[in-house]
Amino acid sequence: MARKVLAICVVLVLAVAFALLVTMVPEKAEPLQLAEPEAVTSIEITKIDGTQVTARERDEIDRIMKVLAGAKPTRIQSVNDTPDEPYGTLRIKADTGTEEIYYYERDGEYFVEKPYAGIYRVEQDI
After folding, report:
1. How far apart are CA 82 and CA 122, in angstroms?
2. How far apart are CA 2 and CA 101, in angstroms?
């Protein structure tokens, strides 16, 4: 009888611990929402070293937007106006308005961050 009670207690403790663990792990960010590539008229880029370039040619814009379209949401939350890491800025100008996102490298991986929306992993540097 004591073994059954002990087994039930162990199962209950494990179930509660699992439930707490699941609720404490942050959810992945929503997919990165940006303007449609066809609506983008230019992308102003401030590189991590401070140099500035502007992509106005359709092939340049499409290349950058393709990298951003492949961004994978992470469980890392964006809780600041700008990243903590040294970062570059992408100012995406479209028919619908201007959006600003940040990009940076951490531990050999590349990320883009949309403040308060999410942090996303990308396959290559912008």
Report:
1. 18
2. 60
**DSSP string across 50-85:** S-EEEE-SHHHHHHHHHHHHTPEE-S----SSS-SS
Where is pLDDT greater, at 7 or 98? 98
Bridge-based pairing state of the strands 97-106 and 109-114: antiparallel
Kindly list the domain boundaries of the chain, sorted by start residue.
29-122
Which residues 6+ apart lie within 8 Å of 88 measured at CB?
Answer: 45, 46, 47, 48, 102, 103, 104, 126
Q: Percentages helix, strand, coil for the chain, rounded to the nearest 5?
A: 30, 35, 35
Domain spanning 29-122: which CATH class is it, in words? mainly beta
Chain Cα centroid distance, residue 96: 22
Rounded CA separation 90/43 (Å):
6
Note the pLDDT of residue 58.
95
Q: For 75-119, how does the pLDDT look when each residue is reduced to its tens digit (9 = 90+)?
A: 988 989 999 889 999 999 999 999 999 999 999 999 999 999 999
Judged against a pLDDT cut of 80, whether residue 122 lies above it is answered with yes
